[in-house]
Amino acid sequence: MTHRISCELAEAPLAPGEVAIVGAGPGDPGLLTLRALALLQQADCLVFDRLVSAEVLALAPCRAKRHYVGKAARCHALTQAQTNALLVRLAGEGRRVVRLKGGDPYIFGRGGEEAEVLIAHGIAFRAVPGITSAQGCAAYAGFPLTHRDHAQSVTFVTGHGKGDGELALDWRALAVPRHTTVFYMGLANAGLIQRQLKRHGLPGDHPVALVQRGTTPDQRRVVTTLDDLVAAIDRERLDPPTLIVVGEVVRLADALAPAEAAAMPLAGAPDHDADRERIAL
Q: Where does the chain have alpha helices with state H?
């Protein structure tokens, strides 16, 4: 199967000592690209983040050694420097390394930083894009990110600064009509997002969607307003990973509910923590 997929895609086999930086998508294994699957099935070892689903990991060969390097707020399995060093070491040992990142590795995934390290060490690598969380979560939550009647532009924004730094954004550019803004990793700064968008011109009744664990069986969608953003997060007890989507397109969510129901996975929610306890890191 691996050979057939690689040939059909004209994909060169993953060479010993090469690293593939691969987007694993937002969670649903059906959203993995064919190229990502072809490389995943060739891996000697996987280096994967917290948001890579157990179902995606299961597509790799059983023989492939798993290395968990996930990061959560103030809780990192490895620092970024240690992750970089791990990639260099595994490649230096002649391993076929697949670096799996949730969503797309070059959209808030530090894939560019890791590519720079590999280049500096003379290590061959390739990058495979994935469906980023904003695309997958919006579609599965029942609304588009752009629409001729509601939004002619969309912006993806990181919801926290580097380290504990301030969230310094061009708020005036974000607080405009007929525009969609998606905040990744923004729950901790929801109050700041709320205040700044209102201060720069968005009304309190402007639509907001909160999508937790999008595209997975655990997905939750909360439709609210800018005024109610912080209260809704507390009331619904939302925690990461949750996207904050601000824009008129959110008003389409109920109208597109049949599409949402058809898209959602039907299987029971997997126990990701239990899966990871069984993985030899």
A: 2-8, 34-40, 54-57, 80-92, 111-120, 133-141, 171-174, 190-199, 229-236, 257-263, 272-277
d(CA 139, CA 193): 23
In tens, the pLDDT along 59-84 reads: 999 999 999 998 766 555 789 999 99
Number of residues that this document lists for the chain: 281
Architecture of domain 134-263: 2-Layer Sandwich (3.30)
Active site positions, annotated = 49, 71
Distance, CA of 98 to CA of 90 (rounded, Å): 10
2-131 fold: Cobalt-precorrin-4 Transmethylase; domain 1 (3.40.1010)
Structure tokens at 28: 């649903």
What is d(CA 21, CA 142) in angstroms, rounded to the nearest whole number? 30
